[in-house]
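Just wondering, can you check both lines?
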Amino acid sequence: MGNFVGAAHSDRHVLVGRIATMDGNGTVHLRGAVCIEADRIAAVVADPAHLPDAFAGFPPLETGGTIYPGLIELHNHLSYNFLPLWTVPKPYTNRNQWREHEPDYKISISLPAKVIGANADVDYPRSIARFVECRSLLGGTTTTQGLSAGGGVKWYKGLTRNVEAPHDPAFPAASGQTLDYAPPEIAEKLVPALQKDRPFFYHLSEGTDADARQRFFDLEYVPNTWAIESDLIPIHCVALQPGDFQRLNAAAGMVWSPLSNLLLYGTTADVVAAKASQMPIALGSDWSPSGSKNLLGELKIARMVSDHLGGLFSLEELARMVTSAPARMLGWHGQVGSIARGLKADLLVLEGTNADVYEQLLTTRENDVLAVVIDGRPRYGRLGFLDFDVKNQERVVVGGKDYVLDLTEEDDDPLAGLSLGTAIAKLTYGLAHLPELAASAPKPTIKGFDAIARNAIAIDFEMEEDEDFTKLQHLMRAAAPQLKPLPMSPITAIDDPNFIPSLKANVNLPDYLKQAF
C-alpha cells in the first residue's frame, strides 16, 4: 500500500494546502489541513498549527497545492472507453439513427467493442477494465458510472468506486437502463425499479426530434401519473423543452454530457431551462467515441457552453457538477463529494494555488494533478510526491511528468497482476488486428466459451440479456471482412496531439466551440 511522504504511521496522514471543501457553505481554507485516519477524514482544520491531538505527532505533507474532493462522474460507458474518437459522418436527430442505421457506427464502434470485449482470451476484457479505470483516475475521478447488469461488473472491483458495484454496503448501489423502454415497459420495469430506494440511471430523450421527446412523455404511464421520482437520474435530456424540466425536477437531477451531445446532434440539453427549474446537474463524459477523455475535459466543455450562454453557471456551480451535486443525486453525500469530518478520504490534489480555487479545477490539465486518493489510499500521484512501495508501483509519464500508480490488489482480484502498460499493449494489438480477431472468433460449440463470454461482456454492448452468444460469434466472424484496424489513442488529452484537431474537424461541432479551443 502506498503511504504519504513523511507519514509516521500507515493509518494516519495529514495533508496541508488550500482546501476546497465543496461543503454547503462553499468553505475554502487558504492553508488548512485534512487529517486522514484509515479510509476516513478524521478532521478538517483551517490552520495546520491547530491539529487534533491525535495527529500532533504526525509530520504533515505540505502539498503546495489545492485539495478537492475526488471527482464523481455520473455518465459513462466504461466497456467502450478504449475505442478512439469517432469521426461522426453526419448530423443526427435521434440516437437510434446512428445506433441502428449508420454502417460506420457498426464498423468503428459496435463491432470492435464486441470483438475485443467478448474475446475468449480473458486478458482482453481484463485489459479494458484496467485501461478505462486508469483513464478516469488520471483525470482525477474517484467514482465512475457505466456498468450494466451484465458480467462485465466482475472486472471492476478495486480501483475507482463504481456506482453500480460499490462493493461497500455504506453506498446504495445504482442500476439503470441504456436503451429506451417501450411504453408498456415503463410500468412493468421502470416503476418497480424506482420503488427500490436506489439510484436508477435512465437515458432519456437523447436526440432533437419529436420521437426523442416522446420518450419523455412515455414516462406518464397512466394519466396524470409519471415515473419520475427522487431515485430517477435521467441522462442527456436533449429533446426536452422548458416545461418538461419543470416536471422532471422531481427526479434526483440530470446528467449532462455536452461534448457527446454536440458531436452527435450539434446541440445539447437546454441547460438554461434545467437551471431555471432548479434541477441539480452533474456531468458525464459519456464514452470515448464521442466524449471527453475524462471529467477534466468535460468540465472545460461545460464551461465553454456556459460562457456561450452568457455565463450561465458560476465557476463554483460547474465545480459542484463533479463533486457535491452528483454525490447528493446518488444519495452518497454522507460518504463522498465534499471534504468533511467522517466522510471517505477520496481526494484530488492539484498543483499550485495561484488561480481562483474553482478556476483552477476548470482549467487544470492532467499533468497538473499531484495525487488522487481513494479510501485514504494514494492510488496515483507525481513521482516524489508520494512514497509508494517500490515493489508495487508502476511508473507512467503524463504530459512529460513522471507519475506512479498503485494498482496492487488482493491475489483473488480479477485484475491482480495486470499493469496499465500491459493492458495498453494488449488493446493496441487487438485494435490493430480487429479483422483477424473477428475471423478467428471461437466457434460457438467450443466448450466453455459461452461462460467466458458471459463473464467478459457487459450488456452495455447493446445486447439483450438473453441474446444468444452463438449469434454473437456468427456476427463477429461474418463482420471480419468489413472491419478495419483502429488506432489506440493515448489515455490522456495532454498526450494526444490529435484529440483537439479531431474535435474541431467534427461536422457537427458548433463554431463557438471550435473557436474556443
Notes: The two ends are 39 Å apart (CA to CA).
